[in-house]
UniProtKB/TrEMBL annotation:
Enzyme class: isomerase
Family note: Belongs to the EIF-2B alpha/beta/delta subunits family. MtnA subfamily.
GO molecular function: S-methyl-5-thioribose-1-phosphate isomerase activity
Catalytic activity, as annotated: 5-(methylsulfanyl)-alpha-D-ribose 1-phosphate = 5-(methylsulfanyl)-D-ribulose 1-phosphate
Cited function: Catalyzes the interconversion of methylthioribose-1-phosphate (MTR-1-P) into methylthioribulose-1-phosphate (MTRu-1-P).
One protein family per Pfam: IF-2B
One GO process term, biological-process aspect: L-methionine salvage from methylthioadenosine
Name the record gives this protein: Methylthioribose-1-phosphate isomerase
Enzyme Commission number(s) of this protein: 5.3.1.23
Keywords (A to Z) from UniProt: Amino-acid biosynthesis, Isomerase, Methionine biosynthesis
Pathway named in the protein's UniProt entry: Amino-acid biosynthesis; L-methionine biosynthesis via salvage pathway; L-methionine from S-methyl-5-thio-alpha-D-ribose 1-phosphate: step 1/6
Source species: Anaerosalibacter massiliensis
Site feature location: Transition state stabilizer: 157
InterPro entries: IF-2B-related, IF-M1Pi, IF_2B-like_C, Initiation_fac_2B_a/b/d, M1Pi_N, NagB/RpiA_transferase-like
Length: 345
């Protein structure tokens, strides 16, 4: 079954509105780059690779808006477009990576007219989207080599088709294992506060009849202690060159329990999620989101008016808690620092 998280056609970006799932399936149409900026901030689209591709298409829509200007004004406006989109969310490095690819296209083609640059940008946006699907399938195949013939797998957040252009990273590994005929069962963490597990991962797995059960986040430790989990696989938003990995809040806690009970803990992420400019996880900016995501559920207040919330959207799992990192170029084992740097192209 094919889920197209995003698609660029008729000079617009079409996004599955992930705020509405699983109760309704709606498409959010971005006509200009400020729509894309809003869609990323408000999590119409979310998940590192999906944000990366959307940011890139945001640059395309910026060029669409300004391609009538003379070259100098066009190039200046395009800087504003990149700056705005770069700030829409801070943690997933794929956003900055996608925008940087578009900036490179502008730089390489700056002798062309704005209309011609726009066409080049569209091509590059489509390349990013196509590559993403191939990358996820490759990651799925490598990751599948780590999954036993019969396995119970735990995952956190949504690193599925909805977090990418199609297929997914961690869920891509799970899909590959399932479609290769393995007898797998998946436990899905609900993933408070935004409930990406309950709303999105469950939706994807149920749609494809992949055997699964939803659990509240606090159940994971008990399942692991009781020997009910064979491996954990999650996605990533930014990986430092020493292997420290930022992912959805709660991932770190899961990694600590996995280490205590000696359960393999895998990260599945494309090379574009590695930030080659940083050495450790300490340098990763962790997004803090609105109190309301914690004090309210579905718009209904569940905590007293007087209480403030602390709501970091991500945490950093230290490299020593990670068994291996699954990428499209193969599986990276420790020592991470040495092996990650070998991948730098
Ligand atoms: O806040 P979100 O929903 O954008 O966070 C998503 C995650 O943390 C995912 O696990 C990560 O982006 C990997 S997606 C393939």
């Amino acid at each position: 079954m094919e889920i197209k998280t995003l698609e660029f056609k008729d000079e617009k970006l079409y996004l599955i509105d992930q705020r509405k799932l699983p109760n309704s399936f709606e498409i959010f149409v971005c006509e200009n780059y400020t729509d894309v900026d809003f869609a990323i901030k408000d999590m119409v689209v979310r998940g590192a690779p999906a944000i990366g591709a959307s940011g890139a298409y945001g640059v395309v829509l910026g060029a669409k808006e300004y391609k009538h200007l003379d070259k100098k004004d066009f190039l200046e406006k395009m800087k504003e477009v990149s700056n705005t989109l770069n700030k829409s969310r801070p943690t997933a490095v794929n956003l900055m990576w996608g925008i940087k690819r578009m900036e490179n296209i502008i730089e390489e083609n700056k002798e062309l007219s704005p209309v011609e640059i726009y066409e080049k940008l569209k091509e590059e946006g489509n390349n990013i989207a196509k590559e993403d699907v191939k990358i996820n399938k490759a990651m799925g195949e490598y990751g599948n080599t780590l999954v036993p013939e019969k396995a119970t797998i735990l995952t956190h957040c949504n690193a599925g088709a909805l977090a990418t252009v199609e297929y997914g990273t961690a869920l891509g590994v799970i899909r590959s294992a399932f479609y290769s005929g393995k007898d797998i069962f998946v436990y899905v963490d609900e993933t408070r506060p935004r409930l990406q597990g309950a709303k999105l991962t469950s939706w994807e797995l149920v749609k494809e009849n992949i055997p699964c059960k939803l659990i509240s986040d606090s159940v994971a430790a008990t399942l692991i202690r009781d020997g009910k989990i064979d491996l954990i696989v999650v996605g990533a938003d930014r990986i430092a060159t020493n292997g420290d990995t930022a992912n959805k809040i709660g991932t770190f806690m899961l990694s600590v329990v996995a280490k205590t009970y000696n359960i393999p803990f895998y990260i599945a992420a494309p090379i574009s999620t590695i930030d080659f400019n940083i050495e450790t996880g300490k340098e990763i900016v962790i997004e803090e989101r609105d109190d309301e995501e914690v004090t309210h559920i579905q718009g209904v207040r569940i905590a007293p008016e007087e209480i403030e919330a602390y709501n970091p959207a991500f945490d950093v799992t230290p490299n020593e808690n990670i068994t291996a990192i699954i990428t499209e170029k193969g599986i990276i084992n420790p020592p991470f620092k040495e092996n990650i740097l070998k991948l730098r192209s």
